[in-house]
């Protein structure tokens, strides 16, 4: 950490600050500039609260030099992490497509979709059992029954399953789930993250709507600090002023996060855009940008299309997307 | 709800949509425009999922006419709600200042601050026992012990207390707490909101960093739908591109929310700005804009000021703020 | 336009509003809902100022049904527009790569870069003569001399040139320039747009840092309304809260804008990300998402690399990007 | 400026960077940390391009210590600047209310409004002659004729006038205007700013919708660098994700800017909120937060209220606002 001291600060206060920093086990280098003096802190500065120091009267500005995350930091783990989700590998060159309906509705529905997306090349089945809804009056999902239906579809097709958790108390129901998803709204539900750190199961951690990549990495760190290092990051659109799309999909997050972390990164084009027409171009773009996978919503019931999301693809549309995605992957390998 | 149908949409699909809407118990008015036809839906459209309809091929756009929140809606409760927090009234002309330290640290600390802020005119004591921290390596609060210390200070001074909850499982520890705070990061932790809807205790609900006022009202609705209607809303800064301040305090939220809801609104200038120097001007501005109260961080230990937040006031500074706030309130009443 | 009238509005005021609308040459359809009545306006509502109407006491909300842009609207021009820039076609399946240095510095520099990028497959030469700089103390470009140097490079290589204008008074200097660029900061410099509407030359219109796609289309409309319909839109990143990248490149703008307009859309990955490492993945992603072209910064002087932008590629890096872009284009065509 | 060098960077490259910096006339202090080494640059670093340096392979991060603006910097001008606008002082404790219609329409209109707002306490008359409009099909103002009408009203009432410029070529028409306004969309129209730097007349510089305070100060610096130091800054709302208000008025800009600059700061609550109901609470809040003035839209023709902005006040409403503003100012002085 570097601390810039204001010009003409009382020497006594500066010395007090230096003594206090040294009392925390750090060393301090002092450089005198034309307008300011600068303190360079040497040692593990992560235990210092940057906000506190930057609030001192004598402090002009501070700059954190080292990243606040360690277990999620590529500096200390230069190799890509490869995560095994029920036999399917993700990361380090392994690309996975997860597909399935927004909500699990019945065994017929989920098994049909599972078979269909598997045929098109999906290797993981996704489906919502517990649904986070902005309105208390909206459908909240089939809950435990939804998980049972997913497990049936897994048995039938052999596809590992991924579904969202909203409450750490529900963990016992997720015992046979292959990967647990943390939704964007819970990305900083630290109590939930801590509980997920205690289990031994891959976690799909979605970036919050208005969270920076650094905060996403800090949330991964929360889980990893507890012992569970199997984290797959997911970008699903951030909140901006634009109104033609529901959110703004931040694809530059793929190469940027890959510089900072060794964890795999997948993209959710369905929720990011909220419009099925945008799912294909954004899936191709994400693949071209180097994503480790995609998570896509697919419905299978044209007669009741109204009950499926505006962002869901039909099985035919999904087949077309999956096929084009493979073309891109092949082209970039050649 | 109004649904704008695309030009030249197949009549059969339009009729299917109309039949489906009618099957949901709603009536449909059709107006033909030059470029589009428009469906006006009559009845309770809150059960329809707007995203689903707007995703249909034949739909150009939709417009929700009625608000999705009811219990939090001023239309149905024209009078300001007045909430009693351990004997202190907030709302409907009753203005309250809540003050106290970022974290509760010791009985000496919390009792001294409580006495000091009470003398300056604060009527509620705030203090953090459970602390949400971005980093898993930061101090997480004294937890249950912190609540005990707050209760001691309450006993000593008679001030009702407000403190933050992070996990519904902790509710038994909050039995004697007068008002429970839901932090910005948990504003859409729906599982927590549902549990708070089942108790009979005022809730201080903070707006999320990147949540709209409408989403704040929907989160209030979650708690109210469960039966607990004692909600005080709190604006504490939103995330923008500006970097000179930590967040951008949205004071226009005060008169805007007051138009939509009858719930009281308080402002947290300490967290919004992150800088103690800005607390006074923003407290005065919030008061002038019609807030029902303020929640301000105060520390009391100049020798260890480093351990207090950059955004905390000294007791002397707080006394000055509280005094100026009263001048503004008096001026506007005269 | 649809106007939602507040419940219990005085009939006289509603009738006044209806009469006024009819006096503007529009017809009004009235539907009565449970809570509100709704006015459907028929005719050309673009002349009404939406903000004015939505501010009336009796108006709950309004919804514009038709788009405010016409000449830029795909509804009225279903076919993709193909724009000829000095013999190079862009749009409607024609993909163009524009490349060159941030600033034109010398004839040696610009001619060398031009030859090099041409060899790698670039078909247009870009280069800054007039430079918009946030600080008045930064280098402001070679100005007229820079344009002369670009023209020399054009003569030498046969590549059409594109460069930025900052002041309508400079137009005479741009006579032989093949395409004029309007920078992000000038996207709503309406006086400049009006002047560009009077000439007959392709315009590369960059999206402002905080402008919606709708505003971008309205700015295109400004130029087109004057008679010049040769507009190429350019997405170059929008301002968000994220700090790891300079801006957030909004690639969903490609398919979204293509739905609304028939104008070609190109992507500037260099300015969007501000980091050379991100240029390749974002170029590939833009291509996969269906962009009509790319505009990329290239420098050619490794000895003086400090004087080139952090976001510029070396000729070798550019060659690699151009080659991979072609692979993606080929894969998607097969 | 402080440059953090990446761990294990080749010594030769680090030495090259140091030599280059020294060749620019700066001195370099080197501190070695546990993970990184840090270069402290001493001298005037404003001539270095931060983006360029931060893009070097061996550079982990940079931190600018000194502000890039000088003439607008309070460090070098500790005293508040007081600006005289046609005899009315603004800044340094002098508070001014500017009021008038969105557009100047006729001499009757502008003279009536001028008399009315003067009676309520306004000391400057504002009115739009040249109007920046998002759509080329909207009314663009009376232009030169509008300025003539403002001058008539000035003659009639003695109030100095302020009106917006959109094109430096129009400057001759502004000869008798007392203060020239630069609108939000032109805040970074550097060509216009440069021309305004050459004249000797107060400039009201509005913050762009998506511009940081630092960028606002840099734009002030552009004008001041040319010789004209009479700048009044104006905050008028920034673009955020919130949709209940048109923009988010950033009142924390008042105390924050006052720390960085000695220039006066006024607030435009009319354009920030876009809703007349919010003008009063936001005017009071701005006053309480320490603004040096307000700029408020007022219309005077209830019969044709539709032609006035949703954000305009009636003269009666304005009188009420002005009166309450004075109460706040008095309360804070007592």
Structure explained in plain terms:
Four copies of one chain form a homotetramer. The first copy, chain A, is an alpha/beta fold and 334 residues long. Helix content of chain A is 33%, strand content 18%. The first copy, chain A, has ten helices and 14 strands. The first copy, chain A, has helices at residues 11-23, 50-54, 107-120, 144-157, 190-196, 213-225, 253-260, 269-273, 276-288, 315-333; strands spanning 2-5, 27-32, 37-42, 59-63, 83-85, 88-90, 96-100, 124-126, 161-165, 179-182, 203-206, 231-235, 265-267, 293-297. In chain A, the strands form three sheets. An eight-stranded parallel β-barrel of chain A has the order 7-8-9-10-11-12-13-14, surrounded by five helices. In chain A, helix 3 (107-120) crosses helix 4 (144-157). Chains A and B meet through helix 2, helix 5 and helix 6 of A and helix 2, helix 5 and helix 6 of B.
The share of residues in helices of chain A is 25-40%
Q: What is the N-to-C succession of helices and strands of chain A?
A: EHEEHEEEEHEHEEHEHEHEHHEH
| Distance N to C terminus of chain A | 44 Å
- Show the largest interface: A-B, 50 and 51 residues
Poorly predicted ranges of chain A: none
User: Main beta sheet of chain A: strand number and arrangement?
Assistant: 8 strands, parallel, barrel
Q: What is the global morphology of chain A?
A: elongated
**Count of DSSP H/I helices of chain A:** 10
Q: In oligomeric terms, what are we looking at?
A: homotetramer
Number of strands of chain A: 14
| Average residue pLDDT of chain A | 90
Class based on secondary structure composition and strand pairing of chain A: alpha/beta
Rg of chain A, Cα atoms, Å: 23 Å
Question: What is the topology, as strand order, of the major beta sheet of chain A?
Answer: 7-8-9-10-11-12-13-14
């Amino acid at each position: 950490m570097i601390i810039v001291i204001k010009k003409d600060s009382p020497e006594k206060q500066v010395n007090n600050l230096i003594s206090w920093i040294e009392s925390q086990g750090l060393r301090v280098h002092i450089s005198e500039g034309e307008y300011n003096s600068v303190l360079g802190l040497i040692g593990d500065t992560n235990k210092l609260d940057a906000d506190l120091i930057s609030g001192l009267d004598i402090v002009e500005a501070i700059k954190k030099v080292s990243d606040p995350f360690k277990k999620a930091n590529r500096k200390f783990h230069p190799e890509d992490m490869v995560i095994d989700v029920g036999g399917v590998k993700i990361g380090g060159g392994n690309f996975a497509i997860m597909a399935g309906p927004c909500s699990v509705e019945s065994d017929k529905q989920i098994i049909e979709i599972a078979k269909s997306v598997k045929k098109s090349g999906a290797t993981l089945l996704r489906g919502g059992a517990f649904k986070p809804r902005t309105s208390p009056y909206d459908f909240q999902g089939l809950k435990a029954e939804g998980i049972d239906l997913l497990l049936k579809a897994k048995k039938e097709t052999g596809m590992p399953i991924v579904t969202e958790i909203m409450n750490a108390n529900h963990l016992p129901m997720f015992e046979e789930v292959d990967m647990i998803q943390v939704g964007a709204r819970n990305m900083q539900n630290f109590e939930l993250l801590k509980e997920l750190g205690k289990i031994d199961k891959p976690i799909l951690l979605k970036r919050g709507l208005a969270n920076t990549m650094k905060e996403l990495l800090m949330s991964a760190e929360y889980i990893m600090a507890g012992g569970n290092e199997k984290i797959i990051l997911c970008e699903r659109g951030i909140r901006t002023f634009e109104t033609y799309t529901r959110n703004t999909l931040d694809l530059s997050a793929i190469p940027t996060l890959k510089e900072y972390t060794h964890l795999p990164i997948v993209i959710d084009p369905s929720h990011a855009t909220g419009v099925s027409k945008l799912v294909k171009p954004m899936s191709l773009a994400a693949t071209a940008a180097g994503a480790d996978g995609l998570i896509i919503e697919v419905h299978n019931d044209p007669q009741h299309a109204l009950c499926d999301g505006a962002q869901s693809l039909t099985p035919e549309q999904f087949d077309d997307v999956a096929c084009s995605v493979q073309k891109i992957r092949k082209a970039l390998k050649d």
